[in-house]
Amino acid sequence: MRILVATDTWHPQINGVVHTLCELARAAPAFGASIAFLTPDGLKSLPLPTYPGLRLAVARPRTIARQIIELRPAAIHIATEGPIGFLVRQYCRANGLAFSTSFHTRFPEYVAARTPIPESWTWGALRWFHGAAGGVMAATPALEAELVRRGFANVMTWPRGVDARLFRPRPGADLGLPRPVFLTVGRLAVEKNLEAFLTLDLPGTKVVVGDGPLRSKLEQHFPEAVFLGTRRGEELARAYAAADVFVFPSRTDTYGLVLLEALASGVPVAAFPVCGPRDVMGDAPVAALDEELRAACLRALTLSREECRAFALERSWDTSARLFLANVRRVALTAAVATGETSEAVA
């Protein structure tokens, strides 16, 4: 079964969407499927003024149509709500093709943080975009329930995973900084609420891994923190393993892959008791969730690193891919039944 995944977010961007899609493509063949991507590669693009370094792909409808026809997918999944996603949606609607979508980013909160546009307007636009899909995939049951409350139909759960071979405890890992080390990893942007972490009075050292539009401002305002910039692969895994607590100050992330990466490294989490962290970890004794983030950080120091690792081992990318493919097949089969057609490709 060949599945076309359309995404406006792609390399060289570093974020959870790109990482999730790459892991999906890696794991899918073991379940009898292959993933083909329709991405901004090869298309004209325009800079995004509110996201320095990021760009929006611009394509003609016939260019998108030609690529879909050439790929001849058995199913189509739209991962993002950008121009590519819109054109693929438009093509599917015009040609009577079923498709699924996924809800990765809480755009209403992000847009409201940067503009005077009310959240209700953005939620309305998202309902319209996803409303034509045969299935809308959400990362957690809680997000699934929220989307249903907000009027989204055909919502399905698609959990994320972690590479527990790369992200693992590494005895002796050390950044050469005063301990305890409180680490955060992610894009340095307003929606990540990093100042809530960097303003805390904590012992040891606060360490930030990542880059983004706020980096210069944060480095200037918080000179006592250590900013390591972007790290990937083994370098990133070693940074996790050298930490004593992983701090996740975001209040808007729908999931947060970094949470599982930290836990797989044997590092307990400190966060606000909001949807992302609460949905990922629930009541498991691997995180301290508190509206007083400093209290959460200090309490996390007492949690078992072994239990953190054990928790993450139960959440693999293979499981994530298997559930994604089950959702896609469900959408395709439902559409086939509705039109009186069947196909061995989606059975």
Architecture overview:
The strands form three sheets. This protein has a six-stranded parallel β-sheet, with helices on both faces. It has a six-stranded parallel β-sheet with strand order 11-10-9-12-13-14, with helices on both faces. It has a two-stranded antiparallel sheet with strand order 3-4. The protein is 40% helix and 16% strand. With 347 residues, it is α/β, with parallel strands linked by helices. The chain folds into two domains: 2-161 and 317-346, Rossmann fold, CATH 3.40.50; 181-313, Glycogen Phosphorylase B (Rossmann fold). It is globular and about 65 Å long. The chain is built from 14 helices and 14 strands. α1 packs across α14 (317-339), α2 crosses α3 (83-94) and α10 crosses α13.
Topology, element by element:
Elements: E1 2-6, H1 16-27, E2 34-38, E3 44-47, E4 55-58, H2 61-71, E5 75-78, H3 83-94, E6 100-103, H4 107-114, H5 119-131, E7 135-138, H6 141-149, E8 155-157, E9 181-185, H7 195-198, E10 205-209, H8 215-221, E11 226-229, H9 233-241, E12 245-248, H10 257-264, E13 269-271, H11 275-281, E14 287-289, H12 293-300, H13 305-313, H14 317-339
Parallel strand pairs: 1-2, 1-5, 5-6, 6-7, 7-8, 9-10, 9-12, 10-11, 12-13, 13-14
Antiparallel strand pairs: 3-4
Helix pairs in contact: 1-14, 2-3, 4-5, 10-13
The total count of strands amounts to: 14
CATH architectural label of the largest domain: 3-Layer(aba) Sandwich
Number of helices: 14
Q: For the largest sheet, list the strands in their spatial order.
A: 2-1-5-6-7-8
Structural class: alpha/beta
**How many structural domains in the coordinates?**
2
CA radius of gyration is 21 Å
